[in-house]
Protein 1
Amino acid sequence: MSESILRVENFSVDYGVGDRAVRAVHDVTFSLGRSEVLGIAGESGSGKSTLVYGLTRLLRAPGVIRSGSASLTIGEEGQRREIDLLSADERELRALRWRHISVVLQSALSALNPVRRIGKEFDEVLRYHGQGTSRAERRARAEELLAMVGLKSDRLDRFPHELSGGQRQRVMIALALALSPDLVIMDEPTTALDVVTQREIIDELRELRERLGFAMIFITHDLSLLVELAEQIMVMYAGRVVERADSSDLYAIPRHPYTVGLMNSFPPLSGEIVPMSGIPGSPPSLASLPTGCAFHPRCPLASEECSLSSPPLVVEGSRSLACFHSSPSVRERLEIRS
Amino acid sequence: MSDAPLLEARGLTKEFLVKPQGSTFARRRPFRAVEDVSVQLREGRVTAVVGESGSGKSVLARMLARTVSPSAGELLVGGKVIDPHQRRDLTYTATVQLVLQDPFASINPVHPIRHVLERPLIIHGTASREVPALSKELLERVALTPGESFLDRYPHELSGGQLQRVSIARALSVRPKVLLADEPISMLDVSVRLGVLNLLRDLCDREHLAILYITHDIASARYIADEVLVMYAGQVVEVAEGTDVVDHPRHPYTQLLVSSVPDPGHQDRVRIQAPSATAFPEEGCRFAPRCPLADDRCRRQVPELVEIGTGHRVRCWRVEEASVLFSSRNSQKGGGEIT
């Protein structure tokens, strides 16, 4: 991997404090290379959104960052400096946001102010976070940004409700790229859109990334989407990273039983129709996590060991894996059992 | 198995009056959310309706459930036409039941599951001493076992997947012959979706229900359905048996849809490029503004749904050329509108 832009170590987030605290993100460690795309896959409640809210310091009470460190490397080549994201104060954060890190949220409709024209949003970002530019220059830049995501400049005079879901999400992406940030975080940006629009946006994102070279963290529950888009994929379950690998490796040989289950949860688009089972049971509540490996009550390979202690995330070459029982042939073994 | 479909819709159309955008004082104009849709639901078969948001698929489901009254067209149960003016019709609701997308919104949160299941039983005249046993049995039919352990729990104590099963159990309580499921899995956690889908398939196979499965996910339709209808802008644009719609799509829109689904196994697949969705044209084929093949006739005249093979019908003037569009997917790349 090339030089890293984001390094996260032993990062944990709780909701609430004291006896009633619930651990939403547990001991997550990873690093992201410059211009790399990391995909985070997991179901609702797996901690994937909480992780990035914590890292970008957008987490609100009762969310509390419990432990760990996170640093972002910014600046031109030759004069890079590292910024500790977790100790940065509001002023420092404000200097980072939009310019170095930007976030695109799932629901563009709730992220955009309904009583403001789209142009105003661009104007504000460029005015408060960009260099001192005139109103006309900001307008020109906003038009340029919209053109980049395939929207006409007259959209700047519209209100969010006048745009379709796909157009709104494109506006969010254009905004996120307004100041050419080093890292863009996308939290389920296409989940609420239909597949044709999703495809258009994914293709655009790929092209923009190749051209502009930003690093990206892309969060979704759709593993097949990540395989197409990301270089690395991290799979989360109940707040922990259970598997991390190069995306083509993960797709070809998933090792964690949960990853296998997740892949078997999407019926394929071609081939014979064979009965598929998904994963038995339901995702656990974070307030009452099972002992040991959080996945063991749903896991076909679980043994006594799994209910006693939680498997550590072990690095094996380019892959990290948290499972006592996994082997490269785990997929075949699981298929025979089910 | 009898020949008459359990539930049949003939030429269902729904017009809503809407204000044209941007003009406060303009008169409201009719907008056809669903236009001339015919569908037959048969015993022991799953019929899927696939379409994106705004395609009219939910309005269709609601017309079939009779919660929205059609502007034109008729409904037939077992071959007999339903009188549209008879509003409160217990025999109809005892035959056709609707399962909605979001179980957290469609189940009253202040009552325990027992209440949720008992209400339809009582309304439909089950003797009160049989009610508790029946409720328990219903839960077990949707694989919530043991049934009695769920009866006194409240909706918030159940996961999304479990609650959707409760909502299916509630629909089953009146012993319907037809189940309409409007996006029943799209709000659920990914890992439990297949469980609910398999349950629907099971009910269809074991209890010979006729099921209408409405979805935006064409892969899940392929997995579960015996027949798939594709809707675009209120019209059915393609119908085919089994996996044909996905494996051999003929309508340009279906091809666009299939080629847009993330499918890492086939990343080399040729993609149809089409402009983004726009407002639908008032005349001609509704897909024409986005269609790479559209010509003058497409822009002037609405095509009919034409049979091109056994059970395979397509609404496209240029269906011959359109099939070439897709089969070039794997053989030849580039050229024309295909990239």
Protein 2
Amino acid sequence: MKPKIILLIVLFAIQLAIPGYMIFEQNQILTEGTAYKFKTRPIDPYDPFRGRYVTLAFDANQDVIPVVEGADIESEQWVYALLDIDDEGYAVLQGLTDVEPDSGQDYLYLETYYRSYDGGFQVKLPFNRYYASEESAPKIESAVWRRQRDEVEDVYAVIRVLNGKGTIEELMVNDMPIHEYIMQPQE
Amino acid sequence: MEPKQLTKKQKHWLQYESDEWVEQGIINSQQQSQILGRYSTSHIESFYSSWSSLLLISLGAILIGGGIVLLIAHNWESFGKGTRTVLSILPLLLAQALTWYSVRYKPQLTGLREASGILLFFAVAASIALISQTYHIYGDLERFLVTWLLLGIPTLYLVESAGVLMLVCALILWLCGLEREPYWLYYLSLVPYLYSLFKRQRLALFHWALWFIVIGTTISIIYSVAWNSPLDHWMIYITLALCGFYYSLGKWLFGFKEHGFWTNPLCTAGVLGILFISLLLTWEDFYRYSHLDTDGKWGFNDYLILSVFAISIVSIVGFLIHKFKSLQIHQWLLIGSVLLAGLGMAGFHLGLSELVYIVLVNVYVLVASVILMSQGIQQHRLMLLNGGLLWFSFLVLFRFFDSDIPFVLKGVVFIFIGSAFIGVNIWYNKKLKQQAEQQEAGA
């Protein structure tokens, strides 16, 4: 067999392996990962290849996360953010460390953003895109924001977390999946 | 032996001439048919029809590929995760099957190879896009484009499709304009392919790719240092040196024989850049802020661009030494504009006054543009004349509207230069007349 044909087979295998690995990894996180609820607000932008999505502006992005004692962390550094749950049942980032946590402790591997005056950091949660159809995406944004003016809505994303990686399972409004929520008649 | 290619007109001439040779007994009719058999017009005749059909096939494949991506981007959320996962792999498998068939069994069918290569290129994007969409995988457009590009470049080498080459070039160009990262380095991965195109004399494709490379690299370098970089005040000087490098490289690679506007992208882009930037330097705002921010945050990209600047200067010097005797005065003047960059950088740090620098640049552009025009007239080269005229006209236009120079001074300088032009013209005409009279007397 000619080298070119062998290389072509290798290329095909790589081209298939990349999406294949993406599918495998996402399914693994979704099935084996622990579910956390992250408070968020959706905004509707556009991607030329992957279509419409809602950007999830997480409350956790606004918070200053303290650094775990002994950790040496700089801005724009990839770190481990330890996960915990607050009294209301929502996920909180408890602290940042540069050492991979032991098993049993859930964490997210993410990049630090700004250093705060008190030594903590702001971070950006990476799973910030919820893809939806051309019809649904603007509806999600407008429905949630219209309702918010009048009453306090409970908007959160259920994120499955495994080995530092998180993936979106569902976007929820008042404990209802977003697609069911937008199907409801709006008053 | 394969027949040599002739145009129809050339073949017709040869046929006519050889008929006469036979009549005159120089050759016999058998020899005539042997000679005529050495030349063919088939390639030339079939070239345009095959070229246009290839173009149509490629455009068709691009549209179909783009259409698949758009269909996927619509987001068929009602299909559910399982169906969408299968659907995401399906276009990739089909495109791979078509490419396999084309490369393995029908390598001689260029149209099929083009179509399958382009479809495979798009199928990779469609597949990654649909999986990202189905599982809400994070990652911005930049990461998506880089993954696509890395899978696209090997496709180019294995399928050897002109369409894929153009798409890869365009994708790198997109990345160059999207982020302040040295994405132009990806063009280096195309060098072996472009070299093979050049060797095989597939020059149209080669020129197109070179245009992409020149534009992409320039955009990327300007964008990377234009602001918020320790090199931002040197951006204009670095770009000027880069244009000088393009020009020298263009002359070095393609020789001093004149090429058209489109067929030597390096020279064309180099000249345009030199003219434009030297004109910018005639304004005061750039020299005033020529300091290098040594205390700023230096990243890989900054060091890389500084290296590009150094390599450009060294290459220009090497070119000048190597081609010292072949260079004409207008080429010296164009490449010499890079000295304005050196003068700006060094002059600022050595305390050269702003007024002196600005005057020097203005005088340089004025003298150089006039020499370019006169060279154009003497050598009957319209492109050179127009280039000089354009350079000169913009300098005049800029100074006319320059609010920093007092009106009286501007007026005096304009009248002086205008008089000088008319004076030179009268003197030149007289000289021509004298020469003509002398020639008549001599005859």
Protein 3
Amino acid sequence: MFTYTLRRLLFAIPTLLIISFVIFALLDLAPNDPTGDLPLTIPPEVREQIRASLGLDQPFFFRYLYWLQQFFINEPLNILERMTGWQFGDGNRMRVLSWATRSPVVDLIVQRLPQTLWVVGLAYVFGVLIAVPIGVISAYKQYSIFDQIGTFVSMVGYSVPTFFTGVLLVVIFSSYLQWFPSVYDTNLVVTDFSSFVQQIKQMALPVAVLSLFNASQITRFVRASMLDNLHQDYVRTARAKGVKEKSVLLIHVLRNSLIPVVTVIALGVPTIFSGAIITEQIFRVNGLGQLLIIAVQGADIPLVQTLTFIFAVLIVLFNLIADVLYGILDPRIRYD
Amino acid sequence: MKNLKLLLAGTVAALAFAGSAAYAAPGTDGDLKILFWQAVSTMNPYLSGGTKEVYASSMVIEPLARYDEKGGLVPTLVTEIPTVENGGVAKDLMSMTWKIKPGVKWSDGTPFTADDVIFTWKYCIAPDGGCAQAAQYEGVKSVEAPDPQTVKITFTEPKPYPYSAFVGAQSPVIQKKQFENCVGAKAPGCTSANFGPIGTGPFVVKEFKPNDVITLTANTNYRDTAKPAFASVTLKGGGDAASAARAVLETGEYDYAWNMQVEPEILAKMVAAGKGKLVTSFGTQVERINLNHYNADPSLGAKRSTKDAGPHPSLSDPAVRRALSLAIDRDIIVEAGYGAAGKATCNIVPAPAAVASTKNDSWCLKQDLVAANKLLDDAGWKKGPDGIRAKNGVKLSYLYATSTNSVRQATQELVKDMWSQIGVGAELRNASASVFFGGDPASPDTFQKFYADVEMYTNNFDGTDPEKYLAEWLCDKVPSPANGWQGQNIPRYCNPAYDKLVGELSKTAELDKRAALAKQLNDMLTEEGAHIPLVHRGSVSSHSLKLAGVKMNAWDSELWNVADWSRAK
């Protein structure tokens, strides 16, 4: 298992390098421009100077190498310095700077992480917590009323886009009933009970929208996987032996059914970090998803490049984790 | 909870007012909540140039003079506006002198001096800095300080209209002490200065979260000790225009929201909730359709839309250009897409009133299909079996490009329908705004390349003087591969008589004569069909009924008088 993990990790290095190059090349080929959003009153020669000051007048390959150096050498050194207080060199390294804000990309990401993890992460946790019991009951009582309703709700949740459910909830709960705020306050610090209530209130709508979507997806997996196992021979054997129905369902069947589900859940974790672009926009959560979409619209290439690359790293990493988990959960699977 | 907060704030305000009967005390009205659906990226307008950054920073850093809501100049950090009459502008128009108000302080308590003004100019013109507002300082030879309270600007050539450098929200003065080590290539590295510039304005940046939210507090060193009424400002960003409008007009969570680009009927429904209102101001923005004077046939490859392609086979006919304009019902376009934020226009310089012409309104403002059809018939354009007119094998069928935007696409549809009534066909196309306006020489979809027969977008000019703007239609400003497609004469209009008149304008100093010349130039462009002006666009914002003092301004930052804003009683 250990050598397998190590081998996979080593293999990830060239994969990620290729990914980073592909992202960079794609972004470079994209026909938008960081000065595209500026008012037309800014004359072309000034735009040219702005582009030059962003380093856009340099050749493509040079810019790529420069980014590699900034991302893989300068930024880690900077983080190390900040964590340990040691000083490497003169500490005057060029960091990856966003073009729109002219501030370090890593600082932007760190600033955005809390709200994304809280809202999108919590919605993922809720989604899983809701999905598993519903999936289990739906499968156990297949074609019952509960199953029919569960299937219907998850189909609706899966097929109705979040930009519809989000706006719908805002119109009902913010505009009409005025129970929850429609704008997320990223400055809110939880210090006492009332600010805690405030935080819950502003998280309620976005978390609800995303939980519904996540739960719908995962429920289908749980249900299908449970159904597969319920008809297996070992279940009949267990029942014949006189094992209690509760143990059959929750110990024998559920454990075996969870193997593919855990993989699906693990593979979904990176999407938490990429944020929920649409939901974050609707509620102005301003997390990583909103950061990415603004950067894409404004052709803020260093920011898009860094963000997408970090997502790529997470995806590669969680793929590996899913594979390892698979081995741990199912003793029949051995990689060595 | 929110009501309680409001109540508390109200009580505090009431108490404070009870205590000081004669003077309003600053910082008594609590928190002012502003919503910009396009989030603010930096507080340094010299590094960004985007409207949202210019507006947000205008609460903190100020120019020497700014425009009021009518487009008039008002002194902010100086005692008066220099003119030739008061001796502030030299008789030969080669220099001007600003006198700084005594006692103005930066928010850190240090005095504001002419040195800071000189530094600002040097900061913006420094090589490798990529200063987005460099055009404001064009033609400035030197900035000097005869004494700490006086700024003397010398120009490279006579400037009949000298109010550009340090005038308006685009060229505010920054503090030398703070930005001294941030000049040129070092500018982007100064993150904390760029996010929290020290200024002379009514508010000070407390915390800046880029592309998210800005927290500002009242400047205790503000020159008017009775202002601002609000103790703090929260400027939140993100989302879209419709939900921003909802947060002000329906839920009442915010006091002010900028730029309400929302379909008129949706806005009207929101206003009916009775919590807020819309404010509009008309500046110089005009949505127009440019008519390509060169041939844009795709078969010409790289030559299309350049001089080598030759004149446009049909748009070079003045009758066609005029008929295309006559066929358009501008009122319908305004009603469908702009509502209160638009007025039908036939001018490319629609404001200020002094330079706005009315000469062509009689024939151009009203749709006249009969006249348009007759014009085309007389010119020999005959309708074919498909209903499209043609002459000598040349069809009146156009590729009509614009940027992606729901209002623009709706306008395209309307215009296409109107043109079909005079036998003119149109193929509609749109490109993402960041591509269309991006100016990437490698992209075929930029508005500068104009690989289309007609294209539609909005442009405007800063301030109130149209000289520089009108100079965009000079023959030598035609974009071409030779100048990297940089040049602002997008329709490729070229008329030596026009060029001569622009030259005359640049030498004329008297305001009346300048206005007359500007009108004449504007009329020439409309009459000769360089473009078809469609809609004079206003800026629309919304504010809560609980907010008082808003004076919507299209000539400067919308937040220009935020120091005077207060909680409505």
Protein 4
Amino acid sequence: MKILVCISHVPDTTSKINFTENNTQFDTNGVQFVINPNDEFGLTRAMWFKEKQGATVEVVTVGGAEVEPTLRKALAIGADSAIRVDAPALDGYAVAQELAQVVKNGDYNLVIAGRESIDYNGGMVPGMVAAMTGASFVNTCIALEVDGNTATATREIDGGKETVTASLPLVIGGQKGLVEESDLRIPNMRGIMMARKKPLNVVAPVATGVETKTVSFEKPAPKGDVKLVPADNLDQLIDLLHNEAKAL
Amino acid sequence: MSVLVYTESEGGNFKKASYEVASYGKGVADMLGTTVTAVAFNANGAGDLGTYGVSKLMNITDSKLEKFTAAAYADAIAQAAKASGATTIIIGSSADSKYLGSLLSVHLDAGYATNVMELPSSAAPFTVKRSVFTNKAFGMTEITTDHKLVGVSNNSYGLHENPTDCSVEAFSATLSDDDFKVQVQSVDKATDKVSIADADVVVSAGRGMKGPENWGMIEELADVLGAATACSKPVSDMGWRPHGEHVGQTGKPVATNLYIAIGISGAIQHLAGVSSSKVKVVINTDPEAPFFKAADYGVVGDAFEVVPALIEKIKAFKAANV
């Protein structure tokens, strides 16, 4: 089985979010970048397929040279090779077009992406890649097994979950549940050394343009102070929730 | 060139979130000087769509579409958009809508903006405010394509009544085998409980509850409020509660009217995931818990005393305000 894992290079979950250039650009100053958490669950599941079912695992991202450390980390975790599409990740559509091109050229059986990136939260790239390449698609995937040409997946739905079967090639939008948090791997020294020798291929973009553009950013208005209610006067809390917040 | 809204139904009846999508669609239609058409699958008539400003329902009745199938639904909605001439399509932010949205976007070559918080700030260029960086910021996003697809964030716009006569028209979509490459085998859904996505109120608890055996009072509080229960990440990681209850950055997002956090200190990842809730109440023994800085109302106290007392107060309030 040939697996492609799509990785997004995102600010660490604890990063402070600021903007520059008159609030038009994300301020990367002092920000640590990591593998998008939803993608990391998928990468770890891909390693499981590699070890238990004999798959090859390639990772891909769309971005400039600055994203290569994130790809090297994925290689250190155990991916066999990496592809960087040399183009800025302008919007979900542009990224999906680039990834679709990689998918078409690579003849993968399974494409694992995260359900959304934690930076721009578009949540559209996995489904777009599936639609652009004619693959099956399962979103919010929390469990995945592959047997021959058929996958069995569990999808999180509102208020529960459902089990589906899908023919390969398949694209999933994965998330926590594909593997447990405790199964995530921290690269060890051997993995890091080996990652240096693994192929990281830079490919030219197809550059088909964008469908959306974010023209400016803003931060939420600062919140007022919390109103503290004494623990022995919960009537006041009920009153505030009913009359002031209109939430009860 | 009406505005097309996809209104989800369950058992033939529209979900409340669908009326929010309809209300939003009406707001956009007013900006564009046009009307709202809804598309639905196997609906029992128009329900209250007229109340929220929908002029016409295109109802697709097809036994093959009784179970949600994203590819087939997206194909059918795209055909409805083409048939109605709609170039602006509005969907919600349920798991199902988010699933089909990206497929629909490709079908229609429509630029897609998700997590949209408000009506467009301008119709030309078509610009919407999106929540980004997991609620830590907003982005003003222009959709530059002819067709536009908007995913409205749950509970962001609310219900707005605009009574309109709503006609119902049968619409049939031509579906191919490729639309059914993903087959639903089984659905495991608690029907007696409110889901986090549908809830107006969410009661969430964390490690401060000390153990899974103490969740009875959390469930009782949720019960008296008609709320869904949720939990923090450590709680689901330790297996005290199912993963489906984990809310926060890597769990489910919460955008509810009232969010009550009990014994949750408020890690930045948790706060990010719940911060689009309108009113946040925190109950915690530690007055230094970071969650107090993000909350609207706070009670510094022991959950094991405060929660049972609060349950009694709310019961009395509900009894007096029926």
